[in-house]
Amino acid sequence: MDWDQLDLNRKVTAAIKRAKIRSLKEILNFSGPDIQRLTRLTITDIQHLQKTVAAAVCQRPVITALHIYQGTCPFPTQNQRLSLGCPVLNSFLKGGIPLMGVTELSGESAAGKTQLSMQLCLSVQYPCKYGGLEGGAVYVCTEDAFPNKRLQQLISQQHKLRSDVPSNVLKKINFGDSIFIEHAADVEALDECIAKRIPILLLRGLVRLVVIDSIAALFRCEFEAKSSFAKAKHLQKFGGALVSLSNRYVVPILCINQVTDAIDPSDSAQNNFGLLDKKVMPSLGMVWSNQLLMRLMISRTPFKLQDKFPKAVDQTLQSGSILRIIEVVFAPHLPQSFCYYTVEQEGVRGWKVD
Questions:
Q1: Which of 61, 89, 118, 151 sits a CA distance of 20 to 30 A from 26?
Q2: How far apart are CA 339 and CA 354, in angstroms?
Q3: Which long-range contacts (CB under 8 A, 24 or more apart) does 268-274 make?
């Protein structure tokens, strides 16, 4: 530490060097009498030294509830969101996906889980002004190969989906170059990916979103029914690692989850998974649920777009699209609610009931 860079009296700087105090951390760890014993400085000089060091260490100003209420400071990181790339879905989720914590997206096959995940991988690359985080994404595949063909189609259609973004801003973003694909064939490979490879990308600032597709596939295959205790223990450890990773680097982590048949769908005490009656529930049980900040469930409906939204026929050529539902099962900042959406050629679009 170069003490000459701090706003300190030369006498104080010389005393610190004589005492062989080499870091700011030592000043903050020592008590006033300890520093006085080491440096022979006066109480006034020591108080000034502690305040100067504390100001140098504290990079972010203190934010109070009054500041937030008055709007005189930016929102804390915990309250920021990653946009889903659709104003209707953003409004439904009060801004998008939280930056800190693990979000689960569960649903049956062909409900649109991968489509929404890829849209987030593109949305994260936009400037903060447009709901992005100005960074790339890591997409961890545990089942099928990454759908690169569909990704390229989404990239080519961004100007249609994100009409709110100027064309000159879109041209500057190299969407395909900032999505890192990882493949994990077993739980051990997934653990290594989370513990070693992904932190390198996060540390270098190349990535601001982590997607795991899917979390249930490996754990279902790896652990048999008789080893439920070992499975629960590993899930708890794995979930804790994801939460720690998200909090440390301030990145949202999205986990795709499969569903399993409910034991008794007619029993409301067991079917506590949101507002809608379902015959399925998210996999991996309560141990995994306790690791999540927010759980979203998606499903297909038997309706087409024009059935629920007749006016949409004049607004889109794909009015025959199948309607899907995204539902908030639980979240600390959202009530249980649901929203309709469709998967179009240009991406996922939400539809608001008038």
A1: 61
A2: 12
A3: 273/297, 273/329, 274/327, 274/328, 274/329, 274/336, 274/338
User: 182: which strand partners?
Assistant: 140
Token code pair at residue 36: 């006085």
Q: Where are the domains of the chain?
A: 8-57, 77-351
Q: Are 82 and 125 in contact (CB under 8 A)?
A: no
Q: For the whole model, what pTM was predicted?
A: 0.76
As a 3-state breakdown, the chain gives helix, strand, coil percent values, each rounded to 5, of 45, 20, 35
Query: What is the dihedral sign for C-alpha 295, 238, 81, 212?
Result: negative
Cα–Cα distances in Å, from 236 out to 47, 226, 288?
Answer: 45, 18, 7
- 77-351 — its CATH code? 3.40.50.300
> Among 166, 92, 152, 173, which residue's Cα sits nearest to residue 349?
92
Contact 189, 177 (CB under 8 A): no
| Tally of CB atoms within 10 A around 31 | 10
pLDDT tens-digit readout, 103-130 = 999 999 889 999 999 999 999 999 999 9
Average pLDDT, the chain: 86
**Any alpha helices (H) in 195-227, and if so which ranges?**
198-203, 215-222
H or E segment to which residue 175 belongs? none
Side-chain-side CA neighbours of residue 267 (13 Å):
6
Question: Model confidence over 234-271: pLDDT tens digits?
Answer: 899 999 999 999 999 999 999 999 998 876 555 444 44
CATH, range 8-57: 1.10.150
